Every structure is written in C-alpha cells, then in structure tokens.
Amino acid sequence: MTETATLAESYTEMTELLLPNDTNNLGRALGGAVLHWMDICGAIAGMRFANKQVVTASMDHVDFISPIDLGEVAVVQAYVFNTGRTSVDVKVDVRAEDPREGEERKTTASFFTFVALDDDGTPTEVPSLTCPTEDEEVLREEAVQERKQQFEDLVARMED
Questions:
Q1: What is this structure's pTM?
Q2: Contacts of 109 by beta carbon, 8 Å cutoff, 6+ apart
Q3: What domains lie within the chain, and their CATH numbers?
C-alpha cells in the first residue's frame, strides 16, 4: 500500500462533563469511565487515519496523576504517531478543565494500538504516516520518546 495519511488527519478531541454517574463516592472520575473515553477517542483517531473500522489491540501502562472532579470537563485528545502494516499506534492524553476558573491540568495519558479491519473483519493494511509540518513531527517524536521511556521504566520496575 502506497497510500499515506498525516498525523493531523487523525487528530481527535472529545470533551465530557463529569457527572455523578461517572464518579466515585469522593466525587471524582471513575478510572473505568476515563479509560472508556480514552478508548473511544483513540479509536476515532485510528479510524480517521485508516479510513477503516479499527479495534483495540492493546493499551499501555496508565497512571492517574490527577483526579477529575465532579463538574469539571475532561478533555481527551488523541492522534496517530506510528503505524505497522495493519495497526496504528495512538497517543491519548487527558486533562481536566475547571470551566468556572479557567484552570486545567494533566490527568493521565497512555498509548493504544488499534488494528484496522476490512468489511469482512479481517486485518487490513493502513496508510503510511507522514508528518508534513514541523509541529506534527514534534508531536510524533515526543510520543515515540515518551512511549520508549515508559517501556524502559516498566522494565526497570520489573527488575526490582
């Protein structure tokens, strides 16, 4: 396949208002709800890139570094930063926004791998990734390096 697609073509942003049904007894986002939003946003980015249905193949390590509180807005951003023959690697970031104060903070991030499927549900080739702008290349390189560092940290924890 000689088809190409850009990182920017995959860029997806979703927002969710944190309501009581997605909170724990402390009024903070349930981890499962956040993971659900991340999976959806990542899949949309993958579908936009591949122009095909995609399914989740894997999700890397996740740390919840800051809570999302009841009434805050969760902003989920995703983009394709790498490809295989039938797969796309997607960086997904989540931040919380307080709409009353205008403040925001990073809450979590992870890397997902999705596999593209044809109409019969068989894995199918995806376009090659191109980054025609400097901003796209910077985002791609940051994601590659962050994923590499995350893997190295995981290996180090396993050796301890």
A1: 0.93
A2: 62, 91, 92, 93, 94, 146
A3: 4-159 (3.10.129.10)
Whether residue 1 is predicted with pLDDT greater than 60 in this model: the reply is no
Structure tokens at 133: 């702008």
Task: Identify the CA nearest to 49 among candidates 7, 78, 86, 2.
Answer: 7
Cβ–Cβ < 8 Å for 108, 63: yes
Average pLDDT over residues 129-143: 97
Closest residue by Cα to residue 54 from 113, 114, 11: 114
Contact yes or no for 60/32 (Cβ under 8 A): no
C-alpha separations of 123 from 40, 104, 106, 114 in Å? 19, 39, 34, 10
Say if strands 87-98 and 103-117 run parallel, antiparallel, or are unpaired: antiparallel
Integer Cα distance of 141 and 82 in angstroms: 10
